[in-house]
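User: Here's a structure from my thesis project, written as structure tokens. My advisor, Dr. K., wants to see whether a designed sequence matches the one we expressed. Can you design one independently, without my sequence as a hint?
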């Protein structure tokens, strides 16, 4: 077969296979390797029973999932899928397929993909469509267009809770130049909701309103010196919420007529916002210093992020250093955060956050870490200066944690023993008006665990003791318990038997208490080199007032099957 035809067929196979595919280098196609399939498949069927008034699971359930990687002459095509009985009525597309082939400095994205443009514009938002990335030399270009969200109508005929949504399409483009350490990028992002006007008037979208968004961003990084780097990210946004009328009046009517375009409809209600994030980092002989500043306007909006915190201003500084060949590491940080930066809210909150940690790792036996953090928030009324209202609130939270781990390994016997101890302290103080007493809440936690494993005997077991004490307003509550688990392999570990049980008690003042028991047991059997069967049962019970006759329980029985595909080992040719 001609090389060009063979490459074309391989690319066609890549498009048909689909799946969750990372960018692949087509330059190496056909040069070495063959066809291999790696990954795994798993399936399960389960039965569930309970005496709860509101069962948390279905009486019968099943599922099938897989993560496979098809390798064709160095072209990697990884994909994954999940099917279950829960997805039969799900109105959003659950099966997602995509591919991102790469050739030299060009990468294409086809299908369900995600791309990163900048933190303030489009960052990890999943889309269904197409994209392109080009990076010849120091030139940087990226673009995408596709559907960000599918349309969902409100459904009052079923008990399934689904949030109505408009179909949202978006586009993004980035143009820049430079290297990873020093570069400048300009990013444009646009998104708009499409809707049915009749369905909107009839309330088919519930309380949701269509949105329109345009964001222009600028990102830069400069390697000021060998150990000093400056980063900068800024963006401005326009955002509409609600239906834009065909005829607009008001102060910005002329501006709307002059600046309307296919990217955005300027409207008197259009919200304008800006955001900036910048920072300096210095690394000197293993010691790192950094200072950062963030400011996000309350009206700044980007629909290219799933979640974005607005109306905040942050100052942060940190220092970290390593001693004794980096076995001992210490870090300290301090930050100040305020909201209501436009003074448009009745309350303004100032938060001070400080933290410190010390970690020691011997590299063989001992690992110890000690961390502390302090969070202080001060709330003041915006009308206090005018004398119309008085409100002062101070909240302080202290957290201290200590973790120790000891690990002993006997290579000759193939045994490993480990022990860990964890202690925690958390205090929260809420101070209101001067005439009101402060309210303090304190929580203490602790746990001790031990685990032993002997590989030649295919046997392992472990035990853990836990306790926690909660105190608030002069009342206390304590929880303590223990858990034990073990596994034994039979027939050269092809058959495994495992069990686990945990028992917890809750006691407190003016509280009758409760008791809970969690237990599970399982059996797994390996068939051949790639297949495995498993059977497991899980029980979860809880009683109050120490009377098991008033208990509630949940029980689940599950049968599983899994298969693992490994790369074929090619035997060397004999001369």
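Assistant: Designed independently from the structure alone:
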């Amino acid at each position: 077969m001609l090389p060009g035809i063979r490459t074309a067929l391989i690319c066609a196979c890549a498009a048909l296979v689909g799946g969750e595919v990372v960018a692949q280098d087509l330059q190496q196609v056909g040069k070495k390797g063959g066809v291999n399939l790696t990954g795994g498949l798993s399936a399960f069927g389960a039965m569930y029973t309970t005496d709860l008034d509101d069962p948390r699971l279905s009486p019968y359930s099943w599922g099938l999932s897989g993560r496979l990687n098809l390798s064709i002459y160095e072209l990697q095509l990884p994909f994954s899928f999940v099917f279950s009985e829960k997805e039969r009525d799900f109105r959003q597309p659950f099966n997602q397929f995509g591919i991102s082939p790469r050739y030299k400095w060009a990468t294409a994205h086809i299908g369900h993909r995600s791309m990163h443009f900048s933190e303030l514009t489009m960052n990890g938002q999943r889309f269904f469509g197409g994209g392109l990335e080009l990076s010849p030399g120091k030139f940087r270009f990226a673009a995408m267009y596709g559907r960000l969200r599918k349309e969902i109508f409100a459904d009052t005929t079923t008990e399934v809770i689904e949030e109505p949504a408009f179909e949202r399409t978006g586009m993004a483009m980035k143009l820049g130049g430079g290297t990873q350490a020093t570069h400048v990028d300009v990013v444009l992002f646009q998104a708009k909701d499409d809707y049915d006007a009749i369905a909107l008037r009839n309330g088919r979208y519930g309380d949701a309103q269509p949105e329109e968004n345009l964001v222009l961003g600028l990102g830069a990084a400069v390697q000021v010196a060998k150990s000093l780097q400056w980063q900068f990210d800024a963006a401005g946004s326009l955002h509409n919420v609600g239906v834009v009328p065909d005829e607009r009046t008001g102060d910005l009517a002329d501006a709307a007529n002059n600046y309307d375009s296919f990217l955005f409809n300027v409207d008197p209600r259009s919200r304008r916002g800006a955001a900036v994030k910048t920072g300096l980092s210095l690394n000197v002989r293993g010691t790192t210093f950094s200072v950062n500043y963030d400011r996000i306007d309350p009206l700044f909006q980007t629909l290219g992020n799933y979640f974005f915190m607005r109306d905040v201003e942050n100052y942060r500084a940190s220092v970290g250093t390593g001693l004794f060949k980096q076995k001992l590491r210490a870090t300290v940080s301090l930050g100040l955060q305020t909201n209501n930066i436009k003074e448009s809210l009745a309350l303004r909150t100032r938060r001070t956050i400080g933290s410190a940690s010390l970690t020691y790792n011997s590299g063989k036996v001992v690992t110890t870490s000690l961390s502390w953090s302090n969070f202080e928030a001060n709330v003041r009324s915006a009308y206090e200066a005018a004398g119309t209202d008085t409100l002062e609130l101070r909240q302080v939270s202290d957290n201290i944690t200590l973790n120790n781990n000891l690990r002993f390994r006997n290579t000759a016997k193939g045994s490993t023993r480990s022990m860990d101890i964890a202690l925690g302290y958390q205090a929260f103080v809420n101070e209101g008006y001067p005439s009101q007493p402060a309210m303090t809440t304190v929580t203490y936690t602790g746990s001790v665990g031990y685990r032993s494993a002997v590989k030649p005997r295919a046997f392992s077991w472990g035990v853990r003791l836990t306790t926690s004490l909660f105190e608030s307003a002069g009342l206390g509550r304590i929880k303590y318990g223990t858990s034990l688990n073990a596994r034994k392999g039979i027939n050269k570990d092809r058959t495994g038997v495992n069990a686990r049980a945990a028992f917890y008690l809750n006691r407190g003042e003016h509280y009758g208490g409760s008791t809970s028991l969690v237990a599970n047991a399982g059996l797994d059997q390996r068939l051949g080199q790639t297949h495995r069967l498993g059977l497991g049962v899980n029980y979860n019970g809880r009683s109050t007032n120490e009377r098991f006759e008033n208990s509630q329980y949940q029980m689940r029985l599950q049968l599983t099957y899994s298969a693992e595909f490994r790369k074929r080992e090619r035997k060397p040719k004999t001369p």
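When you compare it with your expressed construct, this may help: Residues 105-276 form one domain.
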